[in-house]
Design brief:
With about 250 residues, the protein is of the alpha/beta class. It is built from 12 helices and 8 strands. It is globular, with a radius of gyration of 18 Å. It starts with a strand and ends with a helix.
């Protein structure tokens, strides 16, 4: 299958290793992966700030750029969720089932639901605390929301179970927000930091060496708190674990 790799702008600028790990992992799992060099921001920051007219041009560009792929896959729940939910509203000549929103997948969702591997040739001998991000849980369905009376599941746990040596734990209030929330972290900085500190300390209480999850933005927020407070824990994107050979 032909996969167009969508790497969100903040991952490209701050965490290029996450994009590289995503490409390597999908290739090892048998996908024909292509990375369109002309891609830019999907438009989420502008649209979320109320500037949908400015975001429309980016949506049109992305829709055209990824037109020739069977699947579009990206390592960011929030960006993928925005394309799925926002593009039908933003694109002026929207065509159901033909536009990019109908073919875009978050990478863990894609591996779990479409590729369905039974084993990953990966090893990560560490205890990791699983961060269930708000978009991943409530928009992408990567795990069951704790506030709903539904059977418990976690696609992230399922994938990590295929990695040799890893021990997976979850913090108290497992899917409570870390406080990032994009523009929220700018407009309500003090509240955002307080929420992030609470979240990091709950992850630390598990005895984990790493915090992992599917949203680099949430991990970035928590890593900033870890660095500022000099805390003995690290963050790592889940694709880096799934692709790890250590």
């Amino acid at each position: 299958m032909k996969v167009g790799l969508f790497i969100p702008c903040y991952i490209n600028a701050v965490y290029p290793r996450v994009g590289q790990a995503t490409c390597e992992l999908l290739t090892r799992l048998g996908c024909e992966v292509d990375y369109p060099l002309e891609q830019t921001c999907c438009g989420q920051p502008m649209a979320n700030a109320g500037f949908e007219r400015d975001a429309r041009a980016l949506a049109e560009r992305m829709d055209a750029l990824f037109a020739g792929y069977d699947y579009v896959v990206g390592p960011s729940s929030s960006c993928v969720a925005f394309v799925r939910e926002g593009y039908p509203r933003l694109l002026p000549d929207y065509r159901p089932h033909a536009c990019v929103d109908a073919r875009i997948w978050e990478v863990c969702e894609f591996i779990h639901d479409i590729l369905r591997p039974t084993h990953l040739d990966a090893r990560f001998p560490h205890r990791v605390s699983l961060h269930n991000s708000c978009h991943g849980v409530r928009h992408m369905g990567l795990s069951s929301p704790s506030e709903q009376h539904v059977p418990s599941y976690s696609k992230l746990r399922d994938l990590l179970a295929m990695v040799d040596g890893v021990e997976v734990v979850e913090p108290e209030r497992r899917d409570e927000c870390c406080g990032f929330g994009g523009m929220f972290s700018v407009e309500e900085n003090a509240v955002s930091v307080a929420m992030g500190r609470d979240k990091v300390r709950r992850h630390m209480a598990t005895g984990a060496e790493y915090i992992t999850g599917a949203d680099a933005s949430c991990l970035m927020h928590q890593q900033g708190i870890i660095d500022h407070d000099r805390l003995p824990i690290k963050t790592i994107h889940i694709v880096e674990i799934l692709n790890s050979q250590s």
